[in-house]
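Data availability excerpt. The first of two example chains:
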Amino acid sequence: MLQKQIKHIDLDSFFVSVECRSNNQLLDKPVAIGGSGDRGVIASCSYAARKFGVHSAMPGKLAKQLCPDLIFLRGDYDSYTKASTEVTQIIEEAVPLFEKTSIDEFYIDMTGMDQFFGALKFATELRTKIIKETGLPISFGLSNNKTVSKIATGLAKPNGYKYVNYGDEKTFLAPLSVRKIPMIGEKTAENLRKMGVQKIYTLQEMPMQLLEAAFGKQGIMMWEKANGIDNSVITPYVDRKSISSEETFDKDTMDIPMLESLMVSMTEDLCFKMRKENFLAGCVSVKIRYSDFNTHSQQIKINYTAADHLLIPQVKELFKKLYHRRMLIRLIGVRFSQLVRGHHQIHLFNDTETQINLYQAMDHINKRYGNKTVHRAVTKGLKTKDFNPFNGIKS
């Protein structure tokens, strides 16, 4: 049986690197994307800025205090998307199976490569090719599973690589902080610290049953990852072009408050789906089908986002412009298109830290307890026929 070889790629400080590619005067300077307003939040920063303690999701005001010479840039998501596409195309031409998890992060299945070429040699040459053709710094980790490779990439940064031989996973992980395990956040790390667990080797030695009793299924996953066990597979990369939802009513209606509540609910669901799968939308469309079966739609281009509070007003405004016949409505739909990969919180350049934390908390609750566990009050009690918020997903 072939031994798995999974490569994890991460483009170093991606947004800043793209800006530096366009303006080499920014090289080796403390640079931050976003966060320039009084309540703005840092989306990304250079390694020169990180030396001062600046990091992503930090309020821009605090970042400026830590680094008075910090250069703030508004950011250009279109150029970031273009750069990401350049890298994606190079990878797509070079390997048969890869997964793109965000705008700047990839997993590549290199299993079997050792028989013909050498997985590490091929991984190194692919990295060199990407750097040469795009001018962007890149780091990678290579091991037998996703978790270990991702952790290895983090240790290889900036602009380096790290290979973990098969059988060395536990030894490699043992001296590291438990925070290096991707699924362990600040709160979980604090709970582990109270149990006397700060390093991965302690987690490795703990009985799995104890962690399960303390953390449920998450405890089992933590124990497995700490011991270098991760059987998750590469999901083949197929980029979606749009995501949509529509509702056909049993009885035609002119109930505008109900229609607006339904559109809010649709938008919430679609935004949650996009954030869950790391998509951002660049275009919003609303569709109306009247009782006489005449169908009309209208769309508008927007700055890339997956934030409810930015998209809901756009949907409502399009509906107001579209609904002018004052006739009974048979169907209504909402569609987000021109999808690109990216984490939603990174692109809310002028949002507060509180706003970002709110989205993260809502998404965490809805992922754990089911969609719509937390939702806007206006959609409470909304009942529709067979409403499926993801029934129009297209690739």
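And the second chain:
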Amino acid sequence: MNCRLTRWAPILLTVAFYAGPLPAADALSKDLTSTIALLGLPCGQVVSSRRLGENDYLATCKNKMRYRVFVDAKGRVVAQRQ
């Protein structure tokens, strides 16, 4: 195997591993921001989120407000202030 490839392979794998989840997290933050805004709640922008279960998230907004965003038994998206 090429010596240069042997040297760079672990570095490239590490970069790919850590860079992979970032776009998904960014997309989730955008989706949660849009959902909270469409429900008419003040948020501005979701800065962090934590998954509580399937279709159940705890979102922290830029204005320090926290919302639990989930799908209820009727299949509707609900955001509750925490």
